[in-house]
Request: fold
Amino acid sequence: MFYQWSKSLLIVILGSAIVSASFNLFLIPHQLLSGGFSGISMIVGYLTGWNIAILYFISNLPILIWGLLKIGRKFIILSVVSVIMTSWFMELIPLHPVAQNEILAAVTGGVLIGIGTGISMRVGGSTGGFDIIGSIITQKKDFPLGTLLFILNGLVIVALGYFKNNWDLALYSMLSIFVTGKIIDTIHTRHLKVTVFIVTKNKDALLEQLMKIQRGVTVLSTEGAYTKHPQHMLMTVTTRYELADLQIMIRETAPDAFVNIVETVGIMGQFRRG
Reply:
């Protein structure tokens, strides 16, 4: 447990450093935007001259408190670490444009943000903001969060183009956000929900652990095609924010289990047990 926590913390801190480097070396020097609360903080900073690192922390603070009260688990704790470290690294890393061309800055910045966010999500954390809102909203219901995030990011980009009177910056920012999404898709998963199929001989031990995550679990009797040995397949649907914890739990409880993770487009019926 200590090893897993230490590993997760180190990866989240690394992800924060990468995201901060992207902000200060590629996006902010060219007054470009990233997605989510960081993009909102950037546009406020551009228009007012206020410290973007402090704005980033302040904008995430109420969401972090909400998450701690509503969820209070590893995901939120790692997200708190991520927000704090990102704000700190933004104060340490100087504002210096590495790329002089806006398109290169947008693409490279988007790639770095995607890498930093993706590796944080793979260990069960996030970079705060919309991901915490998504984790809370999707706990109990199938909510079209992707559409909402797209609209919110779009409004921020339009605001940048309007207030700065520079639509090239807005379009470059859109390119950066698009690239970020593609990188996160590659490293983690783009869908908010995934279906996990687990084939195991340790049904009882694994089922006992699965019931603690408050998700419905379906148990099917199966048989190995070659070995003819009886086994069980457990099927459950979870969110991408809980996937890392679920994978760790499976490795610890049933290390020999065969696991197939499938992206879920939509669900019908009760998503959360109880």
